[in-house]
Each structure stands twice: as C-alpha cells, then as structure tokens.
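User: Round two. Same drill as before: sequence, then structure, for each protein.

Assistant: Same drill it is. First protein:
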Amino acid sequence: MKDKNCGYCMRGELLDKFGIYICDLQVSSLILFKEQSKRGRCIVAYKDHVSEIVDISEEERRLFIEDVAHAARAIHKVFKPDKLNYGAYGDTGCHLHVHLCPKYKGGDEWGGIFQMNPQKTFLSDAEYAKMIEDIKKAL
C-alpha cells in the first residue's frame, strides 16, 4: 500500500525535500537525512504506508526492528557517535519510520532531545555520496 503524497512511499521529489534514498533493507528503506547537524542521521522507513507499529504483523515488526538495529550498527561503525537517539514520530506524515540521530558529547543538543529539522547543516552532493558509500559498506 502506497500513499501518493508520501515521500517515503513515492520517493522522487517528495523525498528529495528532506532525504536521500540509500538502499532497501529487509522490510524498509534506509534514507540519509539531508540536514546533517547530527552527522550520520538517517531514517528507517517501513516499506508500506502504515501509521503504527501495531498495524503490521508480529513477523514484520520483528524484521522492521532488525532493520533499525542493522542501520544503527552501520551508523555506529561509520560515525562513532557517543549515543544514538531513536525517534518515532509521524503525527502529520503517518508513515511508520524511525529517525536514527547520532549525538556527540559536547556537541549540539547533547543531553537534550534532537530538533526535528534544525535547518543548520547541509552538505555538497559529493559529501552526501561519500556518506552513503560509507554507510553501504558498513551494512
């Protein structure tokens, strides 16, 4: 099931507004968040347009959580954060997804909740491509 107004479902221009597709995992897609004030921030988005984790089967839930853990391991390996925060929101988009937000001691927002989209740090296409390459190698 796809929603034509959802960036996670349709990709293309809708996704390009905030993220860059990296690859498919078992039951989800891994997306690099364009705003990189938290270096290595990614999103794991479930393959179908469902709102809640309780809307999928137990097996799909297990695989989704495995995808989140798999992506988290890659982020830890590549970016070496002091802590990885996990955020599951979707009040307006209503597509099951988890933000993986690396945090670094002494860095921006350490000890607090990360901002959804602070609009502070954007990278060049080459820098995004290198990050994606490194993440793929670590998966």
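Second protein:
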Amino acid sequence: MRLRTAHDRLKVEHSIIGGVREMLEELLRANPEIRSVIPGVIRPVRDAKGKVRVRVTVPTQNGWKAIALSAGARQELFVSCGWAKEALEEAFRKAGAVVE
C-alpha cells in the first residue's frame, strides 16, 4: 500500500485518532529535526479519555515507537529522529500531549 504524505513529514497510511493529528502537526512544526512520523494501527481501549496522552516505548532502527491515547482508542506512532527518549518526551509535552 502506498503512503500518502500530509504536510511533508507526517506520513498517513491509516486514519489518525481524534486530537492526535493536531498534536503531531504542532510537534513537526516546532521540531524540524524530526524526519517523519508514521501513525500506525488504531485499537479501541477503555481508559483513553480527555487530553491526548503519549507514551514513548521502545527504540527502533531510526527513532522511537510511541503510543498515543485519545478519544477511546490507542494508536502506534513511529517517530524517525536521532533524539534520546527524554528529548522526544519533552517535544511531545511542548506539542500539547501529556507524557506518561
């Protein structure tokens, strides 16, 4: 399946859960060092209410995997960057997410 590019560095293959797209666009706007963000699979969960929450979980070959929780669902986010986990968590905070 071909990736559709939105705003240059936000790759959209799946839909994006409510509130997360705006936070990701702000993250990319404020941080040109981030090469790309690829949202992954969405799964329903019970505890995803209120403000967008993000948990940076594991390193990948070219960055980090994170989980976003919002609007009754969770979504994987693959962030391509050369940052440490703490720096990425701080960038998510500045973009408006609650980091867990």
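Residues 1-6 have pLDDT under 50 and may be disordered.

User: Perfect.
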